[in-house]
Write a structure and sequence with these properties.
20 strands
Amino acid sequence: MKIVVLGGGESGVGTAILAQQKGYDVFLSDFGAIKDSYKEVLESHQLKWEEGGHSEEVILNADLIVKSPGIPDKAAIIKKIKEKGIKIISEIEFAYSFNKELSIAITGSNGKTTTTMLTYKLLKDGGCNVGMAGNIGDSYAEQVASDPEKCYVLELSSFQLDGIESYRPNIAVLTNLSPDHLDRYDYKYENYIDSKFRITMNQTDDDYFIYDYDDVEIQKWLQKHEIKAKRVPFSLTQKLEEGAYVEDKNIVVTMNKETIILPIEDLGIEGLHNVKNAMAATTIAQLKRIRKEKIRESLSEFQGVEHRLEKVAKIDNVQYINDSKATNVNATFFALESMKTPTVWIVGGIDKGNDYNELMALVREKVKSIVCLGIDNSKIREAYENVVDGFVEVQTMEDAVKIAQSLAESGDTVLLSPACASFDLFKSYEDRGTQFKEEVHNL
């Protein structure tokens, strides 16, 4: 059976390795350039590959296409594949059929990386044979090739979920919903929401769906659609008979008539959004029968995710915080909400259909000055230029950090929380965050 893998990154190379192991005739094709490190892996496995274009006669002769999540449906080669009626799936769908244990899948507009890493830590510390993959770490397919027996905790984007057909997680989590990636969904929020809910579409009544009870869009969708999985909510505002909620500054999680109580002050991560992430992860640990003492210990040890509200340094009594992973308005909302001191806010990048009015009340309350870091800052300027004392536009991280320093006074915070994608000036949000940290340390 001929399989073509489109995309020569982590996902694609891992898929090619698993497909070869399972006896497929494999060809990998990337329209752009493949990193040298991935070329070495392909060569060491004696896999056939190409870069800098697609050999259509080979691709359109495949029995199955596995597409990397970053390739949009409107790409010319995808349109031709669909015209020929060749099946297109994602790495997650392909690898799932060879993974003997049902996985744990986590999606959401924000918080999914933290929830995934925290869940992985709770389960690993608790003695489970567990791996971590998806939108984070090493390829799911490649890990399944070397260890198909593990239960994998998968962070899944909407793009990855778009490419599933039969994939079924035993435990699915939807952390929250806010408009994101709308350029890939015809600028229709409902299309993006439907995409996120694909995480539960194949679940049965033996499975669990964990979700944010306080999220209006999640509640609206659940009122209109049936799901088979057992619903397990978490909430900051409601006391729940089953699920997780907050009472007297404690997280209370009740599952299968067992309750665990965790003081919020003992969490290793700060902020209300992280209380929610901890609730979701703790509920999973409860379902997996991890001991209460071990859950408490692991929660207190967990220090959070790089590029997510990461404290970089304190210079001249000004705290510098790297929140480069905040690529949408909702993520930046949580960041601004958690600020306790006057804030110089570094914002900007590629706008994904943002509504900046959602942040207006927080900007008025928390932000003294704005440093706009992007090629086109017109929407941000229009929204906030007359709201804050200082508004400066820059196009390099060095300038952004130096100007932020000049605008900040003793006791202030400088917050990089862009609310936008990074690709106008940086390779990725990681590159943006790393450059921020380097420039802060150069001050």
